[in-house]
Design a protein that fits this description.
Blueprint lengths: L19 H7 L26 H8 L14 H13 L4 E5 L2 H12 L5 E5 L4 H10 L6 E5 L4 H7 L4 E7 L11 H10 L3 E5 L4 H4 L9 E5 L13 E5 L1 H14 L5 H11 L2 H20 L4 E5 L9 H7 L6 E6 L4 H10 L4 E2 L9 E3 L1 H4 L6 H6 L6 E5 L5 H13 L2
Parallel strand pairs: 2-3, 2-4, 4-5, 5-6, 10-11
Antiparallel strand pairs: 1-7, 6-7, 8-9, 9-12, 11-12
The structure holds pyridoxal-5'-phosphate (PLP).
The site of pyridoxal-5'-phosphate (PLP) has 14 residues, from helix 4.
Amino acid sequence: MTSSASSDKSPPDAPRPAGPSTLAVHAGEARQKPINSITDPIVCAATYTFSNTQAIIDYIEQKQDREEYGRYGNPSEKVVERKLATLEAGEDAVLYASGMAAIVGLLMTKLNSGDEVVFFDECYHRSREFCSKHLSRFGVVTRQVKACDYDAMAAAINPRTKLLVSESPTNPHLSVVDLEKFAELGRRHHVETLIDATLATPYNVQPLTYGVDYVLHSATKYLGGHNDLLAGVIIGSREKLEPVRKLRGIMGAINSPHNMYLLERGLKTFELRMQRQNATGQAVAEFLAGHPRVSRVYYPGLPSHPYHEIAQRQMRGFGGLVTFEVRDADWKATAAVVDAAKIARIAPSLGGVESLIEQPLVMSYFEVPAEDRRRFGISDNMIRLSCGIENTEDIVEDLRQALEAK
Ligand SMILES: *Cc1c(COP(=O)(O)O)cnc(C)c1O
């Protein structure tokens, strides 16, 4: 199975494209595998042998597609790269040992000293930290503008700008970027665009089909889906990813075959998990919006969400992450709600089969000055819930008892 563009571009007699679950189960895999196994074998090899000197030369001259040395990739990783590229309607995918390694890998490949990168400001705090503390040491300038303010982003672009970056939806506010506008902004200024679509997943939106150049995922989250592995991936055109892959081979931030087996296995149930998590996210958001102890809910599937309209136009579902604020609660009263949860476990991360609950102030921003927290929109009474695949009614009831405990 190969990647197919969105169906409206297919000629009328083209075969019907396979659905997301069929792709998640089969795409990227050989129909007949080594030793006739239905699953891909885990090949534990740090290096790969050549039968003779001519075989090395044939490999160097690209006459033979094969493995060389473990830092450049392994067969298990290649299968998952093909699967993820197909799910995302992209040509190629490069996997990394974590989402952060993927972000660092892309930025280090694309940016030179003196270049500039423009970010929408609602983003994963470690991406922000890498830019402000580390890219700056190499003479790269990072500009941050308010999320979804396209005029501000356009105004921040100058001839040194090389990359526009955003998450969609953003974490933890779940703002939704108008991908067509974002991609168009890049094209108009001849600047490449990157969307971190970890919270959306290719089930809910495929940014490449809107003209975005690179899609990035922390595969640690929904793609792996079981809170048991870390991985990251960048998807885009083969040509644009070639230098990214080469630098990865030097950085060495690749995945072990064991890890890739887990990711390939996790992906088999990708659509089933997404359907449940989308449905539970919506139900939980609706429940919270009607609860007297909740003063605000951030969820793109609610009509009250500022980006509901664009989310409806662009997304198949709105995901399993719901952020909310406890009415008139200080940070301790908010922590009491988190601590009262009986099903959702207290932990960072999101997207896995286990529901996870956390207070961003404590989990990610405890040592950040209050003034900066306010600037990043992290309020003391904010709670972030990642709905797992437990039964929807159980998660809703757990939240109800946590909000009404005492
Ligand atoms: C978790 C996360 C990352 C970082 O991914 P890791 O796999 O933890 O390195 C980046 N972006 C978003 C939106 C995330 O949620």
